[in-house]
Automatic annotation (TrEMBL):
Keywords: Membrane, Transmembrane, Transmembrane helix. The lineage of its organism: Bacteria, Pseudomonadati, Bacteroidota, Chitinophagia, Chitinophagales. It comes from the Bacteria. Coiled coil: none annotated. This is Uncharacterized protein. Residues 222-248 are annotated as: Disordered.
Amino acid sequence: MALNPLTMVKTGGSIFIALPLVVMLLSLLPVYILFVRKVAITAILNVLRAVCLFVFLQYLTLYFIQPGVPAMQTAFRLAQFTLVFYLFKLMMSGSQAKDLMNMMLVSFLSVVITIFSLKGITAYSGILIIIEASVLTVLAFVVLLQLISNKQTAMPNEPGFWIAGGMLCFFGMVVFMEAIAGSQLELSQQIQQEKGFIVTVADILRMVFFIVAASIAGKNRKNNNDHEEPSMPPLPPLPSRPPFKIKY
């Protein structure tokens, strides 16, 4: 749903400053939760923490340090794609699927780097945005189907369910907005701001899903500790016999 142009003109400045700050704040909460609750960091949670810190750095750089630099946007977008793709690879269950994803990632990065070296780092930016977001959306959907098919897994109590759900909401919205609005180079500044606003709101929702995932990981650790078998108490000491006295 598009925003009212009058509202955008009046409140656009404050909104487009406040929303990135909200994303930056929310991106630090999963890291804080995992640290405070002393959750055992698995490979998936470790990459999740890296993704959250990366999102914080991305918004800090693109909105406050170096705003409006297309080369920086492309570099951060490609780095985020690589990091999230690797996270999904860890969440896959089959070894063949992981090997296939490794080949896909290496091939895609090779093609993209070749295009950047020949045409420039901003070449085909609109097409690459759709391709990257579409691939990650499909992977998030596959991970969710994998969790649904596993009847032994309670999905609301699985951090991977919330991680994949957050990724699906965010990258699905990116694909939807790109499909409707088209390439950024053909859009007016007004429409670009509206599209950026909606994508940022979707990113806020993604961070909320990550916070839930980190909270569930900490809750599962507490439940595991509560269900551990108590250690056996030490055996009581043997009763001592009084010394034998010889009477003369």
